[in-house]
Amino acid sequence: MGLKARAPWREKKYRPLSFSAKFGWRITPEGRLALSLGRGRGRVVLPLPEVISRDGQPVSPKDWGEIRLCWDRNDRSWSLHISYTAPSKALPGRAEGRPMVTVAIDEGVINPMTLAAPMPDGGMKVLVVNGRQGRSAKRYRNKVVARLTSRMSRCKNGSRKHRRLVAAKKQVEAKTERRLHDFDHQVCAKAEQFTREVHETWTEHHQEISGPATVVGVRLVAGDVRGIEQNTNKKRRASRSTRQQWSRGRQEDFLQYKTGLRLEHISEAHSSQTCPRCNTRTKVRGREYVCKNESCGFRCHRDAVGGVNIHTLAVNDGTFVPDPDLDIEVTYRRSQTGWSSLQRSLHAYHQNVVGRAGAACREERRSAQTGPPAQAPLRRV
Known about the structure:
Strand order of the largest sheet: 11-10-7-8-9-14
Oligomer: single chain
Distance between the termini: 97 Å
Shape: globular
Number of strands: 14
Order of helices and strands: EEEEEEEEEHHEHHHEEEHEHH
Largest sheet: 6 strands, mixed
Structural class: alpha+beta
Number of helices: 8
Radius of gyration: 27 Å
C-alpha cells in the first residue's frame, strides 16, 4: 500500500485527566474545587482557582465547562486548564449582499505578522509587528541548552551531577515555552486590534452611505507557507534552524480564536518581489524594497510590500494588478512593550530619587528632575 505507519516508539507516562462539567467536578459547600476520580475512589480537593477573562473580569464557576489536569514534564508541575463560556465578540464574516473588507497577512520569522488593509480614502494601511522578543527568548534557550548539554556529555548517566543538569535544562525549556506562549498571544493581540480598527472604520463609512443597520464582513487572508518544513534540503526554501524558530501554526490558531474568523491561505509566490505600483519584479536582499524601475523608484518595507501584494492577489483572483497612485502608510509595533536603555536608566534614577525622598518629601522629589542631587557636605560631630 505504500504506507509507512508505525507504532509510537515512546510510551506516554502522563496523560491529561478530563473532568466534565456537572459530573467530573463540583464546588464543595466549603468553597473548594473537588475533582472526581470515579466511583469508589477518593477525590482531589483543591482551593477554588480564580479565572479571569480576556476583559479582566472574573468568571463565575457556573460558566465553567470541562476542566483538564495536565502535567508539564519540563516544569515538573501540574496545571488546571479550565474552559468557560464567554459572550461572542467575533467579527462578522463573509455573507451574500454584505460589504466586505479584506485584511491580508504576510507571515515571517523576523516580523511574525505584517497586516495590510485598504482604507476608505483609497490608501493602504499596513501594520508590521516586530518579533525580536520571541527570537531573543529562543536564542537564550538554545545557548543555555547547548551549554548544559555539553556539560551533561561529560557526566555519567544517572549521577547526581547529571540529574541536576537535566533538571536545569527542563527548567529553562519550561520557562522559555511560557515566554513564547505569551509572545504569540501578544503578536495576535496586535493583529486582532488592527483588524477591529479597520472593521470599525469601514463600518462607519458604509453606515454613512447605506444606513446604520449596515453590517460589514471581514475576510482574513494569509500567504500560504504551510509545509515549508518538508523537503527543505531539496527546495532550499528554509533551513532547519529557521523552521525551528517559527511558531506560525500556533499564531494562526490564536488569531482565529481572538477574531472568530476563519483564516484563508493563498499562494504568496513573488509577493515580496513585485512592485505594487509598476508590477516590476525585483530580487530583494535586505529588509527594504527598492524598485529597479528608474521611472518608478518605489521604496517601502519588504514585508509591507508582501502584505500589500497578498491583498492584491486575494481581491483579484491571484493576479497582480499595479496601482500607480498607491499610497502606503506603514506602522511599526513591538509585540511586547519594552524600554530603551535611556528609558530604563531614567526610570531607575526616578525610583532611586523616590526611595531617598520618602512619602513626605514631595517637593524635594519634584525638584530632582534634571540630574542627581549634589552630595551634602559632611558634618563633624
